[in-house]
Each structure stands twice: as C-alpha cells, then as structure tokens.
Specification:
Blueprint lengths: L4 H5 L2 E2 L5 E2 L21 H6 L2 H6 L3 H7 L1 H5 L3 H4 L4 H8 L7 H8 L2 H19 L19
Antiparallel strand pairs: 1-2
The structure holds iron/sulfur cluster (SF4).
C-alpha cells in the first residue's frame, strides 16, 4: 500500500454522509465513486466498495499509472505520496503528485533531515542514549509494496 497514513488508517465522513479516504478527495470528480452513509451501512461500505479498493492502492499501481513515477529515482522514498494531489493536478488517481515532486527534486528530504539532526543528537545526549542503539528514524524508508 501507499505510505499515505490517511488512506491506510482512517476514513473521512462528510457532513453529507459521504465516506471517502480524505476530505480533499471529495472536492474532485472522484467523489462520485464513494458511497453515502444515508444510503448504505458503514460496515457494508467498508467491506466492499470503491473506497476499499482505493485503500489498497499500491506503489505498483502508481508506477503502472504514469510514466513519470515509473522512471522516478525517488519512488522508493515518495511511494507515490498523495493521490488527492495527483487527482487535483491531472485528474488521474494514479498520476504524479506535483507537491511530492517539488519536495524530493529540490532536496527537501535532506534539508529536513539536516535541520532535525541537532535536535535528535540533543535528545540522545539528554537521555544518555547512543545513536548506534537507536532505530535510524531519520533515514527510515517508508514501508511500501
Ligand atoms: S517524486 Fe513525483 S514523479 Fe517521483 S515518484 Fe513521487 S510523485 Fe512520482
């Protein structure tokens, strides 16, 4: 699955009863694929629906969905990022997330790591910990399929 925690771990219920992966996606033409609590029971929506199918979107689906992600050197870090951004940008659920492209192609991942490093080292020192015995959280790869 994608690294999007919203897609994996939560769902959005609109004031109108629409059940969707997130609020943003309700503003796209994609909203027509989702079911409504006024018409279906939540347990049925979560069992078998477009919402459930989309929740199991994989990085492989995004790779197959567009040439740019398929050839991208950052795919293992980005994992396709936000499907709503892709929809907003090019009306393709399996398309490119331009915000993720900007983030990775402009070195923001490294910049954020560099900015976090002093605080991480201070945390280790304050708690009398050693980096060798800690999970490498700053360089952890997202778990994706
Ligand atoms: S950085 Fe852009 S092109 Fe690369 S995998 Fe992410 S969304 Fe796709």
């Amino acid at each position: 699955m994608l690294s999007c925690s919203v897609l994996k771990d939560a769902f959005y219920v609109g004031a109108d009863g629409l059940v969707a992966p997130c609020q943003g996606i309700c503003d796209t033409g994609f909203a027509k694929h989702f079911l409504n609590l006024k018409e279906q029971r939540l347990c049925d929506i979560l069992k078998e629906s477009e919402y459930v199918r989309l929740s199991y979107t994989t990085v492989g689906d995004v790779r197959r969905g567009n040439d740019e992600c398929r050839k991208c050197e950052y795919i293992d870090r980005c994992t396709g990022s936000c499907r709503n951004s892709a929809l907003m940008a090019e009306d393709n659920y399996y398309g490119v997330d331009p915000d993720a492209c900007y983030f990775f192609r402009n070195g923001w991942e490294e910049r954020i790591k560099a900015a976090a490093q002093p605080a991480y080292e201070a945390y280790l020192k304050r708690n009398n910990l050693h980096a060798d015995n800690q999970p490498d959280t700053l360089n952890a790869k997202p778990l994706c399929i």
